[in-house]
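FAQ: What does the model actually see?

It sees only this:
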Amino acid sequence: MASQPGPLTQWPWQRLGNMKYVLLAPWLAHSVHKFVTGKPEEMDMINILIIPSLLMRLLHAQLWITLSRMKTAKSKHSIVDKSLDFEQVDRERNWDDQIILTAILAYVVNKVIPGASHQPWWNTRGAILVSLLHVGPVEFLYYWFHRALHHHYLYSRYHSHHHASVVTEPITSVIHPFAEELVYFLLFAIPPITTALTGSGSIITTYGYLNYIDFMNYMGHCNFEMVPKWLLDSLPPLKYLMYTPSFHSLHHTRFRTNYSLFMPIYDYIYGTVDESSDELHERSLRKKEEVVDVVHLTHLTKLQSMYHSRIGLSSLASKPYEHQWYLWIFWPFTHALVQLAWHIGTTFTVERNKLEKLRMETWMVPRYSFQYATFAEKEKINGFIEEAILEADRRGAKVLSLGLLNQADELNGCGMLYVKRNPKLKVRIVDGTSLAVAVVLNSIPKGTQSVLLLVRNVSKMALSLCLALCQIDIQVEMVQRDKFNLLKQRLPPQLQNHLVLSGKYKSKTWLLGNGVSDQEQRKAREGIHFIPYSQFPPRVVREDCIYHCTPAMLVPKAYQNLHACENWLPRRVMSAWRVAGIVHALEQWNKNECGETVSNIETMWRAALRHGFLPYDGVL
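And it is asked to produce this:
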């Protein structure tokens, strides 16, 4: 919101949330009724195409969001290399408001403006007229209106809302107060309404012009340079007729230059072009690849997880993962994404962060959790992980942390497979077991004397946790005889008496591994603490018990560019396995934590706290 909100700042349907799309229902019903009951020769295609155009515009915007975030996940592509935060994501959450507004006003114009309905598919005279009207009145009026918006009176009441985003994303282009957006609509309506009134309008020209506005808006705010220098060099007049992302980024960083809409000609005419525009354009194109210090390697989880990732739907990515019922509408696209991931031949970067002088990236293996359980995919997944490790090593990374199932014992021996295959690796592989154990230990209520350990398989995490509990004199109860025997054999003799086989489920604190069944949870008494030590959270089936989240910690305030949640974790909360890799790099420890190796748990915990990571109770 603007610093001093003026009249008509809020959008009329702001309180409706996603139900705002219901406002289109009467118009859509009327359009469909005319289509079904009308005669073929009376069919108005420009009216019928309003809703399909809305859907295409939503898809167009989302494609730009995904492209921009994939590009800016690597610093070599970013024009403005500063932090993006959750506050900006929340401020830009309603980027689709202007698309809904355009659709509603399009129905009104189609009904009341003579010549706005029943237009032909193409009219050459109208296309020429639209081009001339845009270069002339639209660009000229926008330039002076934009300059007026930077007067302190209008800026504080309206335009400051848009400029709150210094690091722009494509959708930043359409984040404006309602009154300001109405003026833009009137400006952009000049060409199509003029052609309608003169009888030269056409379907292709009208919707083509609308898509041109969207394309140029999104391109100018995408924060990576995509206009090649050779294009501007080979066509010198083009620099006056088409702006570049770097050209407009200067307007967001310096505020008093580069006011033009899409054509910089008026900035050149009136002397407001930034002197560094050409130099920034060249520098943005030749940026070198930045060295990365820490790589966290994760993967897709459930079928909807791509929508919840940073490069997916930004509004979902900024919240903890929850199954969204309405995404079933996209099931064909969802399954297409599965096939696309199946055929992608390498990992890809989804996030870039900074802490102190440490530069971090998150890379994603293009596979879903269910694919990790198939024997046929084992070698392929190991190939992805090994290639990522070698690439991180080539780029000078100090640490690579293995997230989720990338560290599974049955897949690669908790990462030891890659160390054996590549003995000359400089990058250190960290599975994070020590910090995950430390987080679980510090989540157990004070005064606890015994815990119930539920194990599906005797993993490295289960063994390390059991050993740590026995060492601090907490009795570990188990109800699975086969798992009990396996664990007892691997404990030192002096600690074996702390491990007890029991079938009474007496402990008030239960430690849950992967795959704990609903039936087992129902055996718990009221008020039991369920603390998972697994990578994945258990299904919540008991309302009368206390569920903790998976091992995680709050990140320091100095942690930059964090604007997406890590799977099901809340904002600014990070899994212990990911934090462990960062702590290893901050402490400059020159050793692996993979295979059977576990770092000192207390040392790891204190190091994490020392660097500003905080305990997170994680009670759901």
